[in-house]
């Protein structure tokens, strides 16, 4: 291939990649504009203060359009899942990176990655038939379809993301850091907790943020396993309904262009913004990790 043809090909590829990037950004902007446009139609009818500070989501009742119970429910299962997934994920990643024999790594890593491929409906089914009854029996409850059940299941779903990214972050710490620590008399565990993990912190935070984004956006699992009660929860043993589950349940049945219809767009906009912020934070810390490696 001549030099001129190569330059033409390079320019063409640059145009194609730039166009695909702009299309992606345009699609994202279009989705946000559609959500925002329909949300404005809702806020013309309902006071935004009541929307964010009310005590119930009950569209059949007058004034029952408050996102607050749904936000609390979503936060409850997301935080609960992270409390479980963060220590398990980071410690598993540290073990794989620093201590696990090569033979164990060869089958354990693919098994963890395969965990991400399990359909969410299958995990939700396990929550109904296995985890939920176990919680009910252990806690003396009538049923185990509650926030604790959802937190356990979402933790399982977030683990592959947290483990994979955390392992990459830990492996990215220069070997000289470990050698210097060991040379000063620290053992391998002291080196891990006092040198390696602090050095990998930006990547670990990115892993947590992306895992949190996974938990926030999950629909089918929480729809099946948390009881679908839209009342304000008071703890992990209460049945809940998240924002995603509310949209999935109600959007197919709501009359077109009613207040209820526009209310679902309003809560979808809030979820979109929360997820966007979480993912941007994750990308920010991931970019810091890439700069550290370079």
From TrEMBL:
CDD domains: TM_PBP2. One of its GO terms (molecular function) is phosphate transmembrane transporter activity. It is a multi-pass membrane protein. One of its GO terms (biological process) is phosphate ion transport. InterPro entries: MetI-like, MetI-like_sf, Phosphate_PstC, Phosphate_Transport_Permease. It comes from the Bacteria. Pfam families: BPD_transp_1 (PF00528). Residues 71-282 form the ABC transmembrane type-1 domain. The chain crosses the membrane at residues 21-46, 66-96, 117-139, 151-170, 191-212, 261-281. It is found in: Cell membrane. Keywords: Cell membrane, Membrane, Phosphate transport, Transmembrane, Transmembrane helix, Transport. SUPFAM superfamilies: MetI-like. Coiled coil: none annotated. One of its GO terms (cellular component) is plasma membrane. Part of the binding-protein-dependent transport system for phosphate; probably responsible for the translocation of the substrate across the membrane. Belongs to the binding-protein-dependent transport system permease family. CysTW subfamily. NCBIfam families: phosphate_pstC. This is Phosphate transport system permease protein. The lineage of its organism: Bacteria, Pseudomonadati, Bacteroidota, Cytophagia, Cytophagales. The gene is pstC.
